[in-house]
Amino acid sequence: MTIIVIFAVLLGLGSAASISAVDGTVGSKAPMFKIERADSSLALDDMKGKWVLLQFWASSDASSRIACKQYSKLEQNQVSSNPGERFHFLAVNLDRSERLFCEIVRRDGLSAESQFFIERSNAEKIINDYHLESGLSSFLIDPEGRIVAKNPTEQQLIELAIN
Length: 163
Description:
The chain is α/β, with parallel strands linked by helices and 163 residues long. It is built from 5 helices and 7 strands. The strands form 2 sheets. The chain has a 5-stranded mixed β-sheet with strand order 5-4-3-6-7. A two-stranded antiparallel sheet has the order 1-2. It is globular, with a radius of gyration of 18 Å. The termini are far apart.
């Protein structure tokens, strides 16, 4: 009986470890996804080998919208001061209206290249994978595809990715 209990515990621990290997938390492998738009598509998997700052935002979530604008400015400053480009900014909007998304990108002066829209009703897997049910967040992903920081500050970005 003891052997069966030990085996069951070990089996449970093994399956828990494999489930958490890709779960959108710091230290785990970043869940992969692909986004398409009229002029291009982007798969997060294609960005392996690069530092990626992944931002999820919506017009209804003021803090995520402000963070998106700040990260966008940081990216623009980085590109202009360092043409070698140290990290790639990828912003994913989860609004209900693409028209609203386009208007906010224009109004906030965001780089259209790094902005992608996915209708929130079609983003259930991304929301679950990145645990966005409790609020929109940003993730710094290292070149190996691991999440190294959630909602990183500018200082963290400089220390972890830009240098």
